Amino acid sequence: MINELETRWNTFLGKLEEKANELIEGIRTEGKTLWQDKADVYHQTYYRFRSGMQGQLRSIYSKARDTYEAQIQQQGHYQLAAAYHEWEERIRQKEDEAVDEAEAEDLELKYQEILAEHAAIKDRFSCIQCGGKLVLDKIYFITTYIKCDQCQTQNTFEPSTMAKSLEGLSKPLAEQRCKHLYDEYRQHVLHPRYDDPQKRAKKEAEVAYYQKYLRGVFDEVHKIVPDLKTQNEKFYERLMEEYRRDNL
Q1: Cβ atoms of residues 63 and 16 within 8 Å
Q2: What do you get for the CA distance between the two ends of the chain, in Å?
Q3: CA-CA-CA-CA torsion for 68, 5, 87, 210, nearest 10 degrees?
């Protein structure tokens, strides 16, 4: 009897999940297109769309909860409760991730705009003293003194607002580029400490996956802001030291 009920229950949750996944994918794809519509400055069309999609998702959550309470909880089939709670947690997590992805800034585009701006202005500067040509050989994102090769005068270069954003942009952009490594790490859920050698080996593998992800992020950061490599590398080492201490 319980096996038959479990089969029906899992089939029911599976069908609801299919419907939920369709709505979530809509938020992820169509929602992202609406969010990026520059004509809609305040994203009003997007918010109406998201509200409608999430309203349908709430109906799915309610249907699952009502069925759970009536046919599982009230009937005392507590051994089937875990499937419901895991189902709801999984769907809500996917919903949150889809919303985050839809509303995420296109950091790669911002970076390309910074590169394009640098390419456009790098040969336009002259020494304030002798008029000699000054070349910006890299992207400066803080106020910098540039020496004239001809008269040795120190010229002050003030970067644009866009260029100044490069340092803050570097880590989120690097994380975006390394999302595949983060997803790989997320497959290995961290557990409390165990004495079991097998569990210990699993935790060590999880830490190794995290290090692979974090190393990838900081390698990308170094490419974006090479001038900060020394201090960012120290930051990487500190993060890994803290992570190992907390998880091994």
Answers
A1: yes
A2: 44
A3: 140
* pTM for this model (two decimals): 0.59
Q: Please give the Cα distance from 247 to 191 (Å, whole number).
A: 9
Q: What angle do CA 89, 33, 52 make, to 5 degrees?
A: 50
The two most distant CA atoms of the chain are separated, in Å, by: 93
CB within 8 Å of 116: residues ≥ 6 apart: none
Residue 172 β-bridge partners: none
> How many whole angstroms separate alpha carbon 75 and alpha carbon 146?
77
Domain ranges of the chain: 2-104, 108-162, 168-247
| 15-43 exposure pattern, b = at least 16 Cβ within 10 A, e = fewer | ebbeebeebbebbbeebbebbbeeeeeeb
- Which position has the token pair 């969010």? 35
Model confidence over 150-186: pLDDT tens digits?
999 999 999 999 999 999 999 989 988 998 898 888 7
Q: Give the span between the Cα atoms of 60 and 38, in whole angstroms.
A: 32
